[in-house]
Amino acid sequence: MSFQLPLNITAQRKPISATAYEYVLHHSELGQLGQIMLSACISGACNVTSLVHGQPGDHITEQRRAVFEPLAKSLAEQIQLTTNFPKTENTNNESVAA
Asked: What is the pTM of this model?
């Protein structure tokens, strides 16, 4: 893939199924930031879901969200451009605490 993560953040790609992948992002100080899940749909669309790790209202979750959300948006765009998933303008790119 052609994107660069900040030095203190790593990502691990895990297959979920033949048509779906999960990217788990970790921060050196904040721990697991969250997950980005990509799945190709029968309709030809690509579904992108991002989840922030933590509990709603927790201070550390809000710190993770501040770091994760801009990365998740950028990475989701890059992943869609560089994978074999069908392209669509209607993607689910929401970020919720998990």
From this structure: 0.73
Helix H or strand E encompassing 12? strand 9-17
What contacts 24+ positions apart, CB below 8 Å, involve 21-30?
23/75, 23/79, 25/68, 25/71, 25/72, 25/75, 27/64, 27/67, 30/60, 30/63, 30/64, 30/67
**Is 26 within 8 Å of 10 (Cβ atoms)?**
yes
Reading the block at residue 20, the tokens are 């779906």
**Helix or strand or coil: residue 52?**
strand
In tens, the pLDDT along 53-70 reads 999 889 999 999 999 999
Question: Beta strand 46-52 with 31-40: parallel, antiparallel or unpaired?
Answer: antiparallel
- List Cβ neighbours of 43 (8 Å cut-off, separation of 6 or more): none
